[in-house]
Give the backbone structure.
Amino acid sequence: MRVVVTSLGHTEGVALHLSYGPNVPHDGELRLCGDVSAKRVIELGIAPEVNAMALARAGAKAIAVDADPVRIAAGRAAAEAEGVRVEFHLGELGDLGFATSASIDLVVAAGSLHEIEDLSRVLRQVHRVLRPEAPFVVTLPHPITAMLDDTGRTLERPYGQVPSRTVSDLFTALSRANFRVDVMQELFPVGRLDAMVPAVLVLRARKLGV
């Protein structure tokens, strides 16, 4: 497993500008998703930047799933305005019945899983729809940020207090769902030399089994 703590600058001419959170390196710099051209890809929970659109612009057959009809409507309007083809599904993140087993090449969940109550159900569904060894990229606010007050400098809560999960909680949940974590990155805000802790945790896991 590759573990990296990083704060990267902007890279020009990237092929896939997939957002992993505000003011942190994107996938054009981290390169966790690989070439998505002609691949079936799910954005699990629509990010503010609508990552499914970035995936579609890079040649993917992009699908976006979200339980919030407002985000679905906003994403659909943005895609239509830009002339980008994205398939939108309104439903809970664990409701992936529209996809047949082993039919998806990549799932990206950027900032959408950290407060999911039944995480194991979501992971089971993601495992079902992914092809063997296909990647599942998860980003979420780094668990340590939940310990800090609004200034980001003073401890206020215990580590791992509900609804936050610890890094080991997430790693164990993925392992139990038959995923192998091969990359973990802790992203500091770009240009924030005063940042005390990483802002975003990124995990890439690959489906084991069939």
Summary: The chain has one domain: 2-207. The radius of gyration is 17 Å. DSSP finds five helices and eight strands in the chain.
